[in-house]
Each structure stands twice: as C-alpha cells, then as structure tokens.
C-alpha cells in the first residue's frame, strides 16, 4: 500500500506546482514557487526541473523564472473540444464590456476555486488588473467566487465555510461571519458585490451562471475602480449581469441538449 500513497502524493505535488506557475503569467522564481506551495526549495526545484524536462514547464534561465510549458498547450488543445465552454459566453462578455465600459469576465468553478477563462476590456481608460485569464481565487473571494458560493446548497456552503481558512491570505473581511453576511446579501440582490476587498479601490460585481441541473457552475463579472460602482449604478450593472448570465446559461443548456460534451 505504500507505493500508491507515494504516487498519489507526487501527483498532488505536481498539481500544486503547476497551479502555482499558472497563477503567475509573468513567471515566478523557484523561491516564489516554494513559498506558494509550502514545499522546501530543493523539493520545489526538483519538481520544476523534472516537469521542464517533460515540456510541462518552461525555464527562462536568463530571468530565472518558470512558466507553463509547450506540452501543456498541446494537451490543452486536445482537451478543448470536450471542455471548452467559452464560445457560449464570449458574446456576452464582449457585450458587457461594451455596454458598461468596464472589464468583463467569465469564470468557471473548479472544486473550491474559480478560474477566469475570458477577459474583455471596456472603453473606460482606468482599469483594474486584479483579474486576468487563468487567475484563480477561492470560492467567496472576488465577485465571481462569491456569486457561485452564494447559490450552492446550504449543506455545501456550510461544509466549505467550515474548512475554508481565507483570513490569513485575504484578510479579516473574509472571515466566516463576514462571508455569511455577504452570502446573504448576494442572495437577496441576486448578484454579488466585492467592495475593494482584494485590492483597495478595485471593485467588482458578479452573477451566477447555472448549469442545466440548476447548479451554480460559472459566473460573469465586471471589475473597475470604485467611482464606477457607486450605489446608484449597482442595480443597473447587476441587472445587466443577471440578464447576460441567464443568456449564457440558456446557450450552454442548448449545447448540452444538442449533444455537445461541454462541462466545467
């Protein structure tokens, strides 16, 4: 029984390394990767070097930074036909950016995280760069993750809150009582509001996209500076998000009915 456990541990470590690298589009050093994963520096370097040898990681030796490698691109291209659901959301993301002037996004749920899949810039010249394609946040952090978390089943929400420890990295505004309050507010409004909790002055709003079974699986969101998300404008932005979220959900359900193998 010892060998399978060691193998499972290795797979888990590789997964954590790849996720850490994916969260840094400009690359990260081995020391930063060790800090992000909690591994020792020798272990981190051995994993990075082994993955680089297989093409899953790319090492820029001149800058001392590690990036996702070409083999992942090839594998991702092969998997896209089965899992890519961005086509159903792309038009709504573009229209949201055009109609509001803000940066618009489409994110998917992956376990206890959200991953940004699409970004479209609006016309307003001052932007927030907290969210980008490939960015990951825990559920309850950022407006997309809050929107999805708020509409999970009550038992699932409680299980997540009991195991989540978000305060150390994301601050006291992400304590369990604070999250419970924002979940309740999101359910009452129908859409989520992030009042600069990740980066001061950078606000966001999000709406849940439900799958064919009625479960929260994706989210549309908008981000921008605080002055663009004042209380008097929030209902307008919220309604736009809800309308487009409904449209995306309908399109995804139609693809599934037509036999498309799309799923988050």
From TrEMBL:
One of its GO terms (biological process) is negative regulation of DNA-templated transcription. Pfam families: HTH_IclR, IclR_C. It comes from the Bacteria. Residues 71-254 form the IclR-ED domain. One of its GO terms (molecular function) is DNA binding. Coiled coil: none annotated. Keywords: DNA-binding, Transcription, Transcription regulation. This is IclR family transcriptional regulator. It comes from Subtercola boreus. The lineage of its organism: Bacteria, Bacillati, Actinomycetota, Actinomycetes, Micrococcales.
